[in-house]
Amino acid sequence: MYTLLNRLLALVIVLIIASLLLVWLLSPYLIQYYAPKVLVDYKLQLSDASHVRLNPFKGAVSIEDFQLINTKDKNLGIEISEAVIDLNFWSLTQNVVSFDTLDFDNIQLNIERNGDAIRVAAFDIPENSNQNEQETNTNNDATPTAWSLNIPLLEIDALSIEFSNNDKQHSAQLNKFNLSELTLASDSLRGTFHLDALVNDAALNLDTDFDFHSSDEGLSGQASFSSSLAELQTKAFAYLAQDFTSRAEGAISYEINGQLSLDKAQNLTLELTNTNVVLENVTLNIDPFIIRESSLNISTSELSLGRSSEGVLNSNGIVSLEGEDLELGPSNKKDILIAINALSIPSIDYELKDSGLSIGQIASITVRKLLASKVIQTDENEQKIDPTPLLTLNSIHVDQLYLNPNNLSIETIELEGLNANVFVDAEQNVSNLVTVHQEAHEQVEKADAEKADVQNEIAEQEQIQEPNAQSAEQPAEQEAFGFSLSKFALKDQGMVNFIYEGVTPSFKQSLNIDKLTLAKLDSTTPESFAQLHAMFTAGQYTSAEIKSELAPFKDKTNLSLEMNLKEFSLPKISPFIRTAAGFDMSAGQLDSETKVSVVDDEIDGTVDLHIRGLEIDNAGDVHSGSIAEQTFIPLNLALSSLEDSNGRIELDIPLKGNVNNPDFGLNGFINLVAQRAALAASQSYLINTFVPYANIVTLTTIAGSYALKPRVEPLYFDEGEVELDEEQKAFADKLDALLNDKEDIHIGICGFALPDEDDENPKALANQRAENLKQYLVNEKKLASSRILICKSKVDTREDAKARVEFTF
Predict the structure, then answer these.
(1) 3-state secondary structure 398-423
(2) If we measure between CA atoms, which residue out of 329, 402, 321 comes closest to residue 371?
(3) Which of 325, 541, 754, 780 has the fewest C-beta atoms under 10 angstroms from its C-beta?
(4) What is the average pLDDT across 17-28?
């Protein structure tokens, strides 16, 4: 009996082993035979080379050369070179699905999206799959059995994914994919994840540990992660933001370390440490602007971002920003609105509460090599012409910037290497000012108007729905935004070049800013006074200084002003008055001292004017040899009546009245002219004064027999020459002796050129002769520059004309 049982048991075991062995042997062929019948409904086909074997002894499935093909278009959906799936059967008795081994090698997966249709691994996903799943879940009232999933290690080596999104191609190569110690149950999820991949040829790494638990109070847990991405080209993904930008190019890299936490109250917190994001070679087109940058580095040592269960955002942290070669311009042309060679913000300390900025503090901002408004021009061969920008700065440095919802305060702003160029053409346009095309402006305005209309409609509907609440609530008065600046200053000398072509000849002037400071500017205390101090020089001799205290934030104007101007050349402004006055100021210097105080819009002050050597001439630019005074005898007489015995005009002009209707004391001018109209020059005084210098001075009459006028003989130059030779220096030495002997005399020097000396600008040649003579007298002979007045240069077209410098007293 015992022997029979043993034999039966042995037979059963043999049959079981034989059946399992038969399954192991025949499973590849059975799968090849029955798979088409199952896959045909899904329009799928298993390739003939696919090999799938079931090992019933280990509960494992081995896969080799597996290919799944879509029968409709014969496209490959998924390909697996080799895989092993080892299931632990004993764990099934405990409602646990556990795999001893999950190992995949060389997988090729294709994903396609066309419109709303999605195909994954050659399988077309129905558009209403989510709806069907929801209906299935709704109709199934049975309580599910509590199962769990346990994967000690899932390894995928060389997974290649090709993704086509509406004909836009993307690729991902997963070199290493590890999922270890994964436990998935109805109340928990934990595990470790490692990814080493290439996304569009950009290296991506991700490591994370996660542990989440579910209870009656809700889901909670945390996940720590570390990730890096190297130079992902954004151009391939630009179409995803086509509503925002028409062009997005560049490379993005990052290193991120952090932790994501979720508490039982469903408050989500993201904490980042030692995180760095780098953007390189970016071109971003956001009409009407285009942004270009070579490098932008955003990093943080600590940052926290939280979202409450009610959706309220809170954040705080310290962020640094470093950028190189940043540029902003209009999108329709190559002009530059602003360009920055380097930007450095080492620390941005901020706090965000209730989805709004609560506080922000920046220790310093440094900008290197700033350029503003550069119009890019090209020649006939499309070669770039280097234009002059409107503004350049070597550096901008901002210290201690503090911002909250109601106030912005800055400790210091310092500028270095200021160079401004303002070019105004004949049509009164700033020719080197970059403008944005009007079309884009109109589009932006239209979009803003449409947005405002929608908001107004919503507001009206809310008001209709809740009329009582709206009428009961009174709008709170919004607190005025405050601004304060402790100090603004130029660290070194600045330069402003101004060209105005709206007059003839064109006005050109360079202004050196020797000092510019503004201190104690504060809108939060309107009664306080800011302090302004500026010093300027123009050319070698003109200077100005401004000192002022002003209260710019008071309702009424309150200020005190002291301004001194020295040796200002009047011929410079002659082009601006010639049309209205009908004459030019060919010579003259102006000094002025201004002292003004304004208290609650009421002006009280004086302007002291000192004019030396003022001469007027006809409005022509070419010297014809006629005596200019014959045309302007009444005006000359009026001016001479204002002059003292030394040929100076000194005026004390009172300033009174309201800022909206000031009185500049013009009646005093009229009375002064009337009082001095009868004065005449003394012939004996002139003769006795200038006879000792007869070799360089002669006496001539002007305006009939009105007065004797001393005249210095011209200093002649060879054609094309502007430098003083020894003979001309000897002449200048005698002139120096005259001026040293007669310290109350001022002299005007006027350069003349011939038309054929310089075809382009003969007047510049004439002016250089006068400038060189003045420099010799000032630098070598130590004469005061204020005693030598340079007249407007002229071109002499007479046949017997000579290149020269003429003199007037």
Answers:
(1) EEEEEEECCEEEEEEEEEECCEEEEE
(2) 329
(3) 780
(4) 74
